[in-house]
Write a structure and sequence with these properties.
Blueprint: E1 5-8, H1 24-28, E2 34-35, E3 44-45, H2 55-59, E4 65-68
Antiparallel strand pairs: 1-4, 2-3
Bound molecules: iron/sulfur cluster (2 copies).
One iron/sulfur cluster binds next to helix 1.
Length: 69
């Protein structure tokens, strides 16, 4: 079965909604698949190693991350 991956909706993401501009979803991702270079910037997502745990989805206050089927 293919591993579920997540996708980031850049139209919904707004780092100003995250405390100190720090991406809550990137902070929640233990595997660092979702990374933010600098507070206030949108995170980058490299889903190739994503394990589909959905921790980032729960953490994002803007509902900007979705599981892709
Ligand atoms: S937690 Fe969501 S809204 Fe905040 S920076 Fe990350 S992806 Fe964007
Ligand atoms: S689903 Fe889990 S492993 Fe994948 S980016 Fe989100 S927190 Fe990281």
């Amino acid at each position: 079965m293919p591993q579920p991956k997540v996708a980031l909706d850049y139209e919904r993401c707004d780092p100003e909604f995250c405390e100190d501009g720090i991406c809550a979803a990137a902070k929640a991702c233990e595997k660092k698949i979702l990374r933010q270079e600098t507070p206030g910037e949108m995170p980058d997502l490299n889903p190739s190693m994503c394990r589909g745990c959905t921790d980032c989805i729960s953490a994002c206050p803007r509902d900007a991350i979705r599981l892709m089927k």
